[in-house]
């Protein structure tokens, strides 16, 4: 619930909050950019599936929502970066030689610890 930014329960489909600023005191995600009902589709395979929110848990038992919310997004973002890091190898600039193209080498060095950081952020 904290990872998805769901402070309130959704009886008829929960949005997938992509970005926003979780405000634990106000119990809402401010400036949220979300996709309607996508969270229910991803988690329950049904657009109208109900999802419980943090309002079903005593406020004293809530985790630090902002830390969990953003660490999950860091993990997912690094995963997408790792997935897309080989794409520059298909660039016409790489035609000079894959083994001699310095930007690709730098990208590989920078992305080296990304898997470790993603596991730590998401764990």
- List the total number of helices: 4
Strand content: 5-15%
Mean pLDDT: 90
Q: How would you characterize the largest beta sheet?
A: 2 strands, antiparallel
Kindly name the structural category: alpha+beta
Order of helices and strands: EEHHHH
CA radius of gyration is 19 Å
In percent, how helical is the residue content?
25-40%
Strand order of the largest sheet: 1-2
Low-confidence spans: pLDDT under 50, at least 5 residues? none
Distance between the termini: 15 Å
- Shape estimate: elongated
Count the strands? Answer: 2
Would you kindly provide a written description of the structure presented here, covering whatever features stand out?
With 123 residues, the protein is α+β, with helices and mostly antiparallel strands. It contains four helices and two strands; from the N terminus they run E-E-H-H-H-H. Strands 1-2 form a two-stranded antiparallel ribbon. Strand 1 and strand 2 form a beta hairpin. The longest helix is centred in the middle third of the chain and has 20 residues. The radius of gyration is 19 Å and the shape is elongated. The two termini are 15 Å apart.
What key attributes describe this structure?
2 strands, 123 residues, two-stranded antiparallel sheet, single chain, 37% helix, 4 helices, alpha+beta
């Amino acid at each position: 619930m904290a990872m998805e930014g769901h402070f309130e329960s959704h009886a008829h489909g929960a949005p997938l909050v992509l970005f926003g600023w979780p405000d634990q005191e106000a119990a809402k995600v401010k400036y949220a950019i979300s996709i309607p009902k996508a969270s229910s589709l991803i988690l329950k395979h049904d657009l109208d599936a109900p999802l419980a929110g943090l309002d079903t848990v005593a406020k004293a038992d809530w985790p630090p929502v902002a830390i969990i919310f953003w660490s999950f997004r860091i993990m997912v973002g690094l995963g997408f970066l790792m997935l897309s890091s080989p794409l520059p190898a298909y660039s016409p600039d790489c035609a000079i030689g894959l083994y001699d193209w310095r930007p690709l080498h730098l990208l590989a060095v920078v992305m080296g610890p990304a898997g470790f950081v993603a596991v730590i952020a998401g764990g």
